[in-house]
Amino acid sequence: MKKTGFVYIMPLFMLACDSQIDVVSQEMSKIRQLKSTKTVERPIFHPVPRFKYSAHHLKSPFVPDSLQSKFHLSSRLMRNQQLRLRQPLEQFSLDDLSFKGGFRTQSGKYIGLVQTPDGRLERIQLGSYMGLYQGKVIQINAFQIQLLEMVLDGERGYVTKRRRLLRSVAGSELSNKPILDKPK
């Protein structure tokens, strides 16, 4: 019974498809009878001589005179920063790092211990770099690490900002967060 029903319904579908095909065929024959238009030829492009910019050493017209010297200074500092090898703690945000303490060497220098998010302890000393913004360690003591970061300012290029990472104390969640000081 199911097969016979299918056999009776199938021709109806075929008729519906044929009527659609006939409509499309009629439209295509109308389009073919229309007058064809001539295609436009491709334009010929002549090569333009290369322009060599020779005023790159002059003052930029986009930077005000008052900021020009600061902009050149910060750009030079950033170029020097990009040439040095990155240190392991520079792949982490300061928010993710935790200052665990440190020790004093026989020569009197203080070595800090910083814990990374994956639990590793890294040694740092004066002049080390940490954080995502080229933070250079300028002071280490038993309670904090102070560093200078190079942060991109929308107006003046790169500016240095002083940040500090406080020593983690058990039971205190605020102690291991960096505190933003006023920029110098």
UniProtKB/TrEMBL annotation:
InterPro entries noted in UniProt: PilP
Top-level lineage group: Bacteria
UniProt protein name: Type IV pilus assembly protein PilP
Provenance organism: Acinetobacter rudis CIP 110305
